[in-house]
User: What shape does this take?
Amino acid sequence: MIVLDILIVSLGYNSDGTNVLGDVRFEISEKAGETRSLTVSCRCPLSNRIPADALLVGDAIRQLRRMPEIRSGERRLEFAPGLKPLDTAKAA
Assistant: This one.
């Protein structure tokens, strides 16, 4: 599974402002050149040191790594050349 692109499709905060909420969409290349989108919903505690978009992307990647086929080692999670997943993410 190769991640081709990462896009934050929604970003918000809970009512007391302690958590960032959002959906992160991954464009993924599958075998035989097929491409699909996978959207992951995230909720993370806010940080003074890490931007909200990076928190969401980091949590979404953590969730991808917990997928059974990745966790078992059956498939590997890879990123397209030049894609730096924890750089400032693109917001829609």
